[in-house]
Amino acid sequence: MLKIENLTKIFAKGTINEMTALDGVNFHGASGDFITIIGSNGAGKSTLMNSIAGVFPVDSGKIVLDGKDMSDMPEHKRAKMIGRVFQDPLKGTAFDMTIEENLSIAYNKKRRRGLQAGISRSDRELFKEKLALLGMGLEDRMKEKVRLLSGGQRQALTLFMAVIAEPKLLLLDEHTAALDPSAAKKVLELTDYFADNDKLCTMMITHNMKAALEHGNRTILMQSGKIKMDISGDERKKMTVEKLIEKFEIDNDRMLL
Ligand SMILES: Nc1ncnc2c1ncn2[C@@H]1O[C@H](COP(=O)(O)OP(=O)(O)OP(=O)(O)O)[C@@H](O)[C@H]1O
C-alpha cells in the first residue's frame, strides 16, 4: 500500500543549522497494517509523516501510495488519499461549525462536493449511525457546535472524520498525547477499531512505548532520521519497554512507561 524509497529530508541545507531529519528511509506498509512509531525527540518521526503528506518537498526519494507515485504531488491532492490526526484536538475540526457540518465536509472530500451541496437526509442518517459507534452520545448532538465538545470527544470526531473519507493511509501524530488518561484510552480503542480495516494502512506516532507495543501489529523505532528497528509477529510479542530502552539506549522523559 505504502512504499517509501530512500527518503531524505534536510532542513536549512547549506547553513550552520543544517539538519538531516530523514536519512535515506526505506519503508513498506501493507494494507491492514497498523504501525506504531517510536523514537526520541528529534528522531524524524513527524518529518516522516509530513513528508508523506506533502507538507514540504523532500530532498530525494520516492513515495508511492496505492500504486500512485506521490513524490511530486501537492499536499491537497495527497490529502484525498491520506487522513491525518494531530496532537492538538483544536486542529482537526472547524470549531464554529456543527458536528454534522464537520462530518459533511470530511465525507464530501471523497465525493469532491463542498458544504454548499447541503446535507442530505441519507448522509445525516449515515452520520448518526456511525457516530453511535463512538459510544459518546454524539449522535444526539449533531446540530451542536464542535466547540462545545471535550478534547476527547473532539479527537474522536477528528479521527472519525479522517476515516469517513475512506483514505488509503491514516497518519496519527501523537493524537492522544494531549488528552486525559481516560479520554486517551477511549480514543486509542477507537483507533484500534478504525485501523482494523484491511483497505487501510495506519501509522501512529506515540511517546508511550507501552501503548506502541500493545496497539497495532508492527512497531518501528526511529533514531537520527533512520528506521533502526522494525518488528512484528513473535519478535514484537516478546519485546518489552525495558528491552527497548536497553537496546536503543533510550533516554527520554517523554517516553512514558
Ligand atoms: N521545519 C523545520 N525546520 C528546521 N528543522 C526542523 C523542522 N522540522 C523539524 N526539524 C528538525 O528535524 C529534526 C527531526 O524533527 P521531527 O519533528 O521530525 O522529530 P520527531 O521525532 O517528530 O520529534 P518529537 O518527538 O520531538 O516530535 C529535529 O532536529 C528538528 O529540530
UniProtKB/TrEMBL annotation:
Top-level lineage group: Bacteria
Record's keyword annotation contains Transmembrane: no
Residues forming coiled coils: none
GO cellular component: plasma membrane
SMART domains: AAA (SM00382)
Transmembrane intervals: none
Listed InterPro entries: AAA+_ATPase (IPR003593), ABC_transporter-like_ATP-bd (IPR003439), ABC_transpr_LolD-like (IPR015854), P-loop_NTPase (IPR027417)
One Pfam family per UniProt: ABC_tran
Keyword flag Kinase: no
GO molecular function: ATP binding; ATP hydrolysis activity; transmembrane transporter activity
Keywords attached to this entry: ATP-binding, Nucleotide-binding
Occurrences of domain ABC transporter (ranges): 2-249
Protein name from the UniProt record: ATP-binding cassette domain-containing protein
Organism: Lentihominibacter hominis
